[in-house]
Amino acid sequence: MAPLFKKKNATNTKGNETKSTEGKSDKDIMVCPACKKELVKSDVKENKYVCYACGNYFRVRTSNRIKMVADAKSFSPWFEELETKNPLDFPDYEEKLAATQEKTGLHEGVTIGAAKIYGEDAVVGVCDARFLMGSMGHVVGEKIASAVERATEEKLPVILFCCSGGARMQEGIISLMQMAKTSAALKKHSDAGLLYIPVLTDPTTGGVTASFAMLGDIILAEPGALIGFAGPRVIEQTIGQKLPEGFQRAEFQLEHGFVDAIVERKDLKKTLYKILKLHRSQEGFANFTPATDFEYAPSELMKERSAKSRSLTAWEKVKAARKTDRPASVDYMDEIFNDFIEFHGDRYFRDDPAVVGGIAYLDGQPVTVIGVHKGKDMKDCMLHNYGMPSPEGYRKALRLMKQAEKFGRPIITFVNTSGAFCGMEAEEGGQGEAIARNLYEMSAVKVPILTLMIGEGGSGGALALAVGNEVWMMENATYSVLSPEGFASILWKDGKRAKEAAEVMKITAQDLLHLNVVEKVIPEYGGADDKALHDIAMFMKCNMREFLEKYKGKSGQEIAEERYQRFRSF
Length: 570
Fold this sequence. Notes:
By secondary structure, this protein is an alpha/beta fold. It folds into three domains: 1-56, no CATH class; 59-278, Alpha-Beta Complex (2-enoyl-CoA Hydratase, Chain A, domain 1), CATH 3.90.226; 313-568, 2-enoyl-CoA Hydratase, Chain A, domain 1, CATH 3.90.226.10. Helix content is 38%, strand content 17%. The chain contains 22 helices and 18 strands. The chain has helices spanning 41-46, 62-69, 93-104, 138-154, 172-191, 206-209, 232-239, 250-255, 268-278, 300-308, 314-321, 329-336, 378-383, 391-407, 424-428, 431-442, 459-463, 484-492, 498-505, 509-514, 530-549, 556-568, and strands at residues 29-31, 38-40, 76-77, 110-117, 120-127, 158-164, 196-205, 220-221, 227-228, 261-262, 338-343, 355-362, 365-372, 411-417, 449-458, 470-474, 478-480, 520-522. The strands form three sheets. Strands 3, 4, 5, 6, 7, 8, 9 and 10 form an eight-stranded mixed sheet that branches. It is elongated and about 85 Å long.
């Protein structure tokens, strides 16, 4: 699978390093502060103000930022009439403001108004570092709060390009109040079910980071951007030591769970459009594109494979479920869904690669998709911790589920895990609480939830993503309170009796269908492998459509109550 968003370095946008500045006048030349190379200004502009030699991102002035993301002549500024005052009577503040306005041509540190992005309506705001380092004074806060309030009234999404040194010192405590004011306006906007996307650019620090920059439904960042509450100099002075390279950069924030995705500047407009389009208001959960209607039937090859296959014993199914060459969550996602956009992070501590999640289309219907990914080879398995989620993985999944609930998107989860990660750091991070919280919150989510057990379903680590309205299970998958080895060790004090335990535990799809633990068994056509992937995925897809059709006209409360009663019956 090739998700749209991947972790990137600030140097990934290298262009033609051999472009010559020969014959150019001084006014046509600029020097990159990162690599110190002379660059042709017009070529830098063509490259979206990214150094074509080293990939360094230049700060972008307001007018250029708007040109890069908004449709031509579509931007209309709001609240330009607001007057900046001097609430503390700070010496020379009015003069400094007037000089900055004259030099930059800007009214204040943020410009905000209505725009279109490939025809999609949005409120777009741009903070500009040229205006007192984009610091947040009362007019910046008022413009943002007023624009968000208007967006709430007009039911518009909001996109804010954040670039700021933080609070405006000349306004003291009044500047501090803007953090609460903008945050409160965004809370009302969110409660109205509307989308907010902050785009974090270099730098995003201080009170801006601690307010509107970090409150997005989806948080994007540019490569290499400095993002943090306290600036590096303040931290170094406080702790008396040098910070490591890359600390507080966008890549650091992605790894630590605070950013959904790093997006290169050349892809930003397209990415914003895709996100806006996925969040168009829709009724119901089965808004499929008419041209995508289909009825699934297995291919002749799959019919032949099925005819030649035999039923496996419980222990054989355990071994089949554990095979590393078995199609993974991301394989089914890639086959079933269109335009998958991966999001990262739990917003608390870290991104957990064991859990892959984001939004996509199921034949035109937006869905939230979440999967536990074990890995396909040794390197991949190590990267994804062998599909054993940590607390932050469960918190990421829950964040995406709550986001889906807010925007009325059905949720589809793919589960393949031997269980939650049992390590010291997982316990320190609150593994039990994270699993419990998922069970608690998923029970009341007001959109349909479908869970597919595609390999191992190990204990509470699997259940934490399986509180669904329906649970389906692949023919040779397993789902159990713990592993057969663990069961045998605890009850019989002999882990070697795992084969016997597998039979006793009733962990196969067929057993669990009989016990009403699952609603459907997914055929594997002789065994899940790359050859069978497409047919299995199409079976899933056809049945997913039927599943969602059942929820036409049902309220969120009815959907949640059905899920409650499902588990209440055990």
